[in-house]
Amino acid sequence: MKILLVEDEAKLVSIIQRDLTAEGHELSVALDGTTGLQMGLKGDFQVIILDVMLPGINGIEVCRRLRQSEVTASILMLTALGTTENVVSGLDSGADDYMVKPFSLAELNARLRSFARRSGIGAPTPNLLQVADLSINTDERVVKRSGKIIALSATEYRLLEFLLRNRNKMLSRIEILENVWNIDFNMGTNVVDVYINYLRKKVDKDFEPKLIHTVVGMGYIFKIQEG
């Protein structure tokens, strides 16, 4: 599902982002109420996860304005204030459901599945990973970019899947060695750089935007290049 997360706690954002991306959802993030409102009005989101206590415009007001503008996305409110009054305020503003912090990721995913059933949206495809126009079907081990099937070796595939599952995160060569080659120490090998180069030629060279980026002196990051 296409989801907007409006939350100002950076640590919680990181945790939710990693989990929902791994579950096959497409996630956008706003760190304050004003930005969240703008994105919610412009974006075609199926679900909006909305914190109550936000910088700028609070979550209750954001929800109210979204509903006034006839935004039909399912809205899940997050609140540290679990009193009946606060829950009622959130639901009355137009929210479909609420969760009290702290909550488990299992509960969050259950709420999202419930939204999918109610709205007729198919459950997210757990075997499909996607960034921009690059997709991996992890059941069939099929990689596509712009609809074109990309032939990869077994090692190239493992490396690409690891990068994709950790999108937007800087990965050191040691981390990559540990997870792709099961090597837990630096052997002085440049095998990571060699295979990154192989992948770039196959999945980046003839396409835009570029997705595999070097972080000089540190490692690599898989993300959509801004600008």
Features:
Rossmann fold; alpha/beta; 5-stranded parallel beta sheet; 4-stranded antiparallel beta sheet; OmpR/PhoB-type_DNA-bd; 227 residues; single chain; Arc Repressor Mutant, subunit A; phosphoprotein; 2 domains
Structural account:
The protein is α/β, with parallel strands linked by helices. It folds into 2 domains: 2-119, Rossmann fold (3-Layer(aba) Sandwich); 128-222, Arc Repressor Mutant, subunit A. 41% of the residues lie in helices and 22% in strands. The protein is built from 8 helices and 12 strands. It has a 5-stranded parallel beta sheet, sandwiched between helices. The protein has a 4-stranded antiparallel beta sheet with strand order 6-7-8-9, covered by helices on one side. Strand 4, helix 4 (84-92) and strand 5 (97-100) form a beta-alpha-beta unit. The protein is elongated, with a radius of gyration of 20 Å. The mean pLDDT is 88.
Going by CATH, the homologous superfamily of the largest domain would be: Response regulator
Strand order of the largest sheet: 2-1-3-4-5
Radius of gyration using CA atoms only: 20 Å
> How much helicity do the residues have?
40-55%
Fill in the CATH topology of the largest domain: Rossmann fold
What class, by secondary structure content? alpha/beta
Biggest sheet character = 5 strands, parallel
Number of strands: 12
| Strand coverage percent | 15-25%
Query: Number of DSSP helices?
Result: 8
Distance between the termini: 26 Å
Overall tally of structural domains: 2
InterPro entries: CheY-like_superfamily, OmpR/PhoB-type_DNA-bd, Sig_transdc_resp-reg_C-effctor, Sig_transdc_resp-reg_receiver, WalR-like, WH-like_DNA-bd_sf
Keywords: DNA-binding, Phosphoprotein, Transcription, Transcription regulation, Two-component regulatory system
GO molecular function: phosphorelay response regulator activity; transcription cis-regulatory region binding
GO biological process, one term: regulation of DNA-templated transcription
